[in-house]
Predict the structure.
Amino acid sequence: MNIVKVMKFGGTSVGNTDRMRALIPLITDSDRKIVVLSAMSGTTNSLVEITDLLYGDSVNDASVRIEELRVRYHQVVEDLYSTEPFLKTGHELIDSHFDYINNFTLRIFTKLQEKAILAQGELISTSLFHNLLKERNIKSILLPALNFMRIDKDGEPDYFYIEENINRELKKHASNAIIITQGFICRNVYGEIDNLKRGGSDYSASIIGAVLKVKEIQIWTDISGFHNNDPRYVEKTKVIRELSFDEAAELAYFGAKILHPSSVNPARVKNIPVRLKNTLEPDDEGTLITSNSVLLDYKAVAAKDGISVLRIRSDRMLMAYGFLRKVFEIFEAYRTPIDMISTSEVAISLTIDNSEYLSQIAKDLRELGSVEVEENQTIICIVGDFRIERTGSAPEIFEALNTIPLKMISYGGSPNSISLLIDTTNKTEALRLLSRNLFE
Ligand code: ADP
Ligand code: ASP
Ligand code: MG
């Protein structure tokens, strides 16, 4: 039996025991499926706080936080199961995970240990859910993601390894319709525990769907699909019924939190539809992402914070060729991708979202000219129909934002998006103005 679909349930979808129970009717149809689970909502944040305390040598505070979380999970076990053997197994499971986390308070803390701690959220949620199904006599298999999910030396999914290993694991359980696994977690090229970065369970689902060539990848979350603006900042946002892979990828990359920035790509490469659904309102249609593009002047807006802009000015650039190459080589040396770029005859502005090497990059760029750095910037991305054969230049966008200083504009790079750089302090206002002018 082939795997028909992947169903990924995010943090809120497994956020409490009622929500976990509510998943059962959603996964018990006859399709053979992979169920990818995130950690219960708030858990990964708590684990990050614990690892931050351990990095800061605040071992006592870390222990207090670990014990608080342990108590919370024992309560989850009490609420989740109704029979003695499952209650007992549940409490033992929680203690084994928290004893493991607690062990790290006794040693010098490293990056490797941080990743091992962060993995506990997904390991716990999947075991709790698997046992819940067992208690209900619903047949399922728990397939450890650490047995097949792997990234290469560049942090990219190792598709060959993943395909070989997941298929080998699945063969062992050929008659099982429900296969549960962890999102987010993986092994790196050295076999150590690693992860696909925050929000990475979406990416896990898409990678698994792509290697198994399923019919559909479903991302179940707490909202009925992709909205045309960020509902955390703007009221009256509306769901978009259909998006193309390109549009969804662009919006996810530029800040639409509903999808991990890399999660569209594996599905796009294998042309597998991605459906966004709401576990709180399972009958809502949600959003379907396919290779189809339904052209609309303006479709959606997203915003990405934490951007730094570097402005390089050099008279040597005047009439020179090869200057941009020298600039790009510096970014390449620090493995830092550039998001937006804008050039004039003597100056160039670039934005980056990874500021780990910002000061080194700026120092090296100063060999080429004067450099100005500004942090706390936001990229606003507007997705719509901006094909070059269109007349006009999206005047509604610029009219909407005529009170907001625009620091950079990227137009013409893509037929379906325009990006603008603004100060982060203006973000909420800009998103609201765009919603009002483009969608209401
Ligand atoms: P999960 O835990 O299920 O992965 P996330 O919190 O990562 O859920 O993503 C869902 C959230 O994304 C929504 O609750 C919403 O606040 C936020 N969000 C941001 N931009 C959008 C958008 N354009 N459309 C829908 N949701 C969005
Ligand atoms: N639990 C992880 C996080 O909170 C992964 C995910 O939820 O997608 O980032
Ligand atoms: Mg998410």
In short: The domain at 299-438 is CATH 3.30.2130.10 (VC0802-like). The mean pLDDT is 95. The pocket of aspartic acid (ligand 2) is lined by residues 10-11, 38-39, 44, 121, 183-184, 198-201 (CB under 6 Å). The chain has 14 helices and 16 strands.
